[in-house]
Prior knowledge:
Helix content is 36%, strand content 15%. The chain has 393 residues and is an alpha/beta fold. The longest helix has 21 residues, at 259-279. The chain is globular.
Amino acid sequence: MNTExxxxxxxxxxxxxxxxxIHAGAEPxxxxxxxxxxxYQTSTYVQTAPGQHKGYEYARSQNPTRKALEDALAIIExxxxxxxxxxxxxxxxxxxxxxxxxxxxxxxxxxxxxTYRLFTKVFEKFGIKFIYVDTTNAANVEQAVTTNTxxxxxxxxxxxxxxxxxxxxxxxxxxxxxxxxxxxxxxxxPYLQNPLNLGADIVMHSATKYLGGHSDVIQGALVMxxxxxxxxxxxxxxxxxxxxxxxxxxxVLRGIKTLHVRMQRHCENGAIIAHYLRSHPKVERVYWPGFxxxxxxxxxxxxxxxxxxxxxxxxxxxxxxxANKVLSSTRIFALAESLGGVESLIxxxxxxxxxxxxxxxxxxxxxxxxxxxxxxxxxxxDDLMDDLKHAIG
Length: 393
């Protein structure tokens, strides 16, 4: 039986994305031949003599199920090394722990509220400075660079305004400054976008979202190409201990196997819902990078394979009361935080995912009190449109 991981077809051609995603990190269990990676539910490993073991000593440092997932993460992001964490925030935390007091981070002014909270409420008091700019214009990043700049942190598409940042252009600026570039690729997923190919140093995922895909796990991930960087981050991972359990790793491994088919449907439904909302007489604006008149359309088309299933919109009556009516009236779109699951979710960023950002900062960056965010699932698009029609009125 051939137990080697496939990297090419019998004819020697590189695997296409769908095939690569299904087989990433998957090897039959050597003991039984099980095609699915077992859940190694153990805290420690027997050694034949002190310091003599089979590559595993203690489960905080290593676990075979986690190792299979980390290999898969690297493969699907076209990277060399993957690391799994207990959450997306834990993965972000590990990256910032690479820095020292006095270092500066240039960050996007439109980002997940939990990232902003981590930066401002936890790391600022340790002497790390965060400078927030509109990264959709690469010149803003370049102008913010100082001799202390050590990291540039971007999301693309951003959460929740779906802004697009040119990864290659930002990578060139970061490299010139001697700074690392980390890209939060959660909204796009590795199926739609691979930042390492465009010059990023680190890719971060909240694997809770599209990678897991079923709203049943909390997990984060980092992928990189540089071995030294991997060793630094692995040291932080095992020393600080924010690691996922083997069951969680198994769930994300299972989710990855259907990533391509789910993302295709998310994108199809996303396009239908975005165009439906744009044509609705009570909708003022729809934020989705797939519109040809969107400011980030050309960049998105260049660096993404499709435009995703995340959408935000505002009503013409851009009040909290009007938004709350919609948020409370859907039957298929579930009112909940998070995103990327097979089921559709509706969210109010100002009071939910981005409540930790001061209101004046939210408003300044375009995140109004009436903004509504959708994670478009893989249900029938007609049912989703009917649900929004009923809710918006």
